Amino acid sequence: MELRQITYFIAVAEELHFGRAAERCHIAQPPLSQQIKRLEDELGVTLLERTSRRVALTPEGKEFLKRCKDVRDRLNEAVLCVQDMAQGLEGQLRVGFIGPASLSKLPKAIRAFREHNPRIRLDFSAQSTSEQLPLLRGDRLDIAFVRLFGHDTSGLNTLTFLREPYVLAMPEGHPFGEREVIDITDLEGQPLIFNQRIAQPALYRSLIGSFHRVGFMPNIVQEVNTEQSTVALVATGLGSALVPASSATDSRSGVIFRPLTGELPQWKITALWKKKNQSAILEKFLAVVREFREVN
Fold it and tell me: Which residues pair with 57 in a beta bridge?
């Protein structure tokens, strides 16, 4: 059975006249009649009752017409769908991100994209950088927002989405709370909360190196696995912590933030996507992402 046979059958069934159906299909009547006969032979079913005066559908023909129209409509929908996908008007985008990205302008970028592209479904996955990279390479994510510390990015495009300095988060009532700016040298002996060494070993070494260069080892009283946990522990009074500047938007009571001076690494979030990914939807999303970048 061929698609053209279905098209010819729908035309005859709707016109109930071989001549008009042939004109509608832009073919001669004899080939049209032959194709309908071949279709019936393949099915082993009579679809049309033919006399010299009329053409009528058999009960089987009526049922087959209904099913054929459904096939035609679904095919038309599929054509429109893939055409819209090619133009980036419809489809799906899978976005991975680390937790701290939610404190950046990424949520605003996503909202702006959704407002202008309501027919594109966005699927989100909040995971660590190490968890996102294999998903991206395995085509289970289209774009990932991560923190890179020596990770392999071969075959991937990179775009710095956020670059900002560290600030010091302190419990309310801390003696340094009266200062406008705090230097890294002032932190000698101060109880500090750090991100876990095992989670981001390269970042951990970089921060420790910043303290070594000014002549002392930081007094680390607790290690945690997320920035959110870090700020929560600061609020308990356990110690202070180096956190990205965007964390200062955290309205959690019991924590104050002050700028830090000294030779410290910058805090960055990088967008990654496969070089082979030529999706029009991804390109539209990247255009919005570039509008919301913070790389001062």
Answer: 48
Q: Does residue 66 belong to any structural domain of this protein?
A: yes
DSSP string, 210-257: HHHHTT---EEEEEESSHHHHHHHHHTTS-EEEEEGGGGG---TTEEE
DSSP secondary structure string for all residues of 82-104? HHHHHTTSSEEEEEEE-GGGGGT
CA distance readout (Å), 235 to 103, 139, 184, 257 = 18, 40, 21, 11
In angstroms, the first-to-last Cα distance of the chain is: 63
Lowest mean pLDDT among 16-25, 96-105, 199-208, 285-294: 199-208
pTM of the model: 0.65
Task: Please check whether residues 227 and 240 belong to one and the same domain.
Answer: yes
The SS3 of residue 38 is helix
Per-residue model confidence as pLDDT tens digits over 67-92: 999 988 888 888 877 776 676 667 88
Contacts 24+ apart (CB under 8 A), 2-7: 3/75, 4/35, 5/35, 5/36, 5/38, 5/39, 6/68, 6/71, 6/72, 7/72
Q: Which domain holds residue 222?
A: 166-265
Answer yes or no: do 105 and 68 share one domain.
no
